[in-house]
Fold this sequence. Notes:
Elements: H1 2-17, H2 19-38, H3 43-71, H4 77-102, H5 108-114, H6 117-126, H7 134-139, H8 143-154, H9 160-184, H10 195-211, H11 213-231, H12 234-239, H13 241-247, H14 253-278, H15 280-303, E1 305-307, E2 313-315, H16 321-337
Antiparallel strand pairs: 1-2
Amino acid sequence: xxxxxxxxxxxxxxxxxxxxxxxxxxxxxxxxxxxxxxxxxxxxxxxxxxxxxxxxxxxxxxxxxxxxxxxxxxxxxxxxxxxxxxxxxxxxxxxxxxxxxxxxxxxxxxxxxxxxxxxxxxxxxxxxxxxxxxxxxxxxxxxxxxxxxxxxxxxxxxxxxxxxxxxxxxxxxxxxxxxxxxxxxxxxxxxxxxxxxxxxxxxxxxxxxxxxxxxxxxxxxxxxxxxxxxxxxxxxxxxxxxxxxxxxxxxxxxxxxxxxxxxxxxxxxxxxxxxxxxxxxxxxxxxxxxxxxxxxxxxxxxxxxxxxxxxxxxxxxxxxxxxxxxxxxxxxxxxxxxxxxxx
Length: 343
C-alpha cells in the first residue's frame, strides 16, 4: 500500500530534488525500515517497519530505472535497465540463502530482516561518488555540470567531445519541446520547482496520457501487462513459497524455495542474452501458455494435498507426489515469468 502511495509522489520529488537525491532518501527508508523490523517486539512495530520499507520500494522502483536510463549512453540504455532487473532476481537468491542460514537459529528472523539494511547502506555511501543525471541538470539550468557528467559517461577519446555536445543539444531540444508544448496548454513554466507548478505539470501529463490516442493505447497495454503479471498470482507463489512448501510437507522449506529463486535468476540471465535476438513480443507469446500450464498444475496439485496446519501436509493417496508436482509447477512458472510480462 505504501509503495503504491510513494510511487506517484516520487515523480514530483524527482523533478524537484533530483534523481540521485530520491535514491538517497529511499536508501535511508530501507535502512530505517529494516532496523525497525529487526528491533521490533510487537506486531504494530513490524507493520510500521514493513510500511517504511514499502515506501522505499515504491520510490526506488520508480526512480532507479529513470536514473539509469537518463545517465546511460543511448546505445546501452535498454541493456542497463535490464541488468537492474537481473540484479533484483540475484538479490532474491541472496535473500533466500540468508533466510536458509538463519532459519534454524533462535531469533534468526531478526537477522533476516535486519541485514536488509546492509545493501541500502552500501548503496547510500556509493551514491556520493555518482553524478546526477544530465537531463535533470539541464532542466535545472546547470548545463556545464551536465557537460562534465556526459564527459565522464562517454570518456575523453577521439571524437567524444563532439558526441557529448550532440547529446547535450539533444537533451536541451527535448526539454525545450516539452516546455513549449506545455506553454501552449497554459501550463506555468515560471518557478518550475515550486509545488503548484509541479502539480500542474503532473495533471497536464496525466491529461495527455488519457486524451491523446497513441498515449492512451500505450498506457492501456502497459497497465494490462503489469496487471496480468500481478493477477496471475506468480508473486504470491514466489514470495510465500517457503510458507507454501512448509504447508505441503517439505522438511526444509526455505532451502526448497531457494530452487525457485535460482530458477528465476538463471532464466532472467538467459532472457538478458536472448531478448534482443528473439524479440519481446515473441517471448511474450511463448511464455503465456507455459505460465497457464504451470498455474493449472499448481491448482490441480493443491486439490490433492491435505493441508495440516503448520505441521506439514499429507498428499492424498500418493505420498509426496503432489507436493513434488507443486514444486515442479512453480519452477515452470519461474522459467517463463522471469522473462515475460515484465519486459
